[in-house]
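Work Package 3 (structural annotation) set out to generate three-dimensional models for the target panel prioritized at the project kickoff. During this period the team completed the workflow that converts sequence records into discrete structure tokens, so that structures can be stored uniformly alongside our sequence database. As a representative example, we reproduce one entry of 229 residues exactly as it appears in the project archive.
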Amino acid sequence: MKTILVIEDEQSIADTVVHSIEREGHAAVRYERGLDGLERLKAEGCDLVVLDVGLPDIGGFELCKAIRAFSQVPVIFLTARDEEIDKIVGLEIGADDYVTKPFSPRELAARIKSVLRRSAAGTVPGGGTAAPAEGLRIEAEKLQALYGGRKLDLTRYEFKLLALLAARPGYVFSREAIMDAVWGGDSPSLDRTVDAHVKSLRAKFRDIGAPADLILTHRGTGYALRDDS
């Protein structure tokens, strides 16, 4: 049984979410205010957060950023908005999925099941330790990457993306293939999300002195890790 934190201020929606979670055999802990939910997460943790974008005390996107400052717990956004830019922002700041109101309990249960499954699996290609580019080391068991002996401060999705590229250095992964492997085939395929994460990875490599072309862009195709072999 998983413990799922529900942060939703509308009672009727919260009741639907809690009922959906409990029908799947999980425990639901609900808060109306975002900051109260944040304190609960810090104190006791949980297995997944279902987070409303529109909260009375703090925006859902801002709350997700606060969560990502100390935790990689999976997050599913609930929102009444269905604009592409909202989905992009939500995914780029670390959300795992995005459910638009109104939604059916069955849809939400399926999304929760999928995110929990991906989280448990880690969605990290291969395993063990690899060194596909000079100075780069992927430690799958620890979910961390090092370059020149220095640990990269990566988000969960940045690590998954880097691990995917490192599994086959020189191989060009399309954006669609990256979305399927890193975010899951049931997540919205948003090219800008992949591009933003690659840009962030490159910036973090530059910050520790790695070469600028460690991740190569193949225009119209996708991305590849530079092959040093």
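The CA atoms of residues 100 and 107 lie 10 Å apart.
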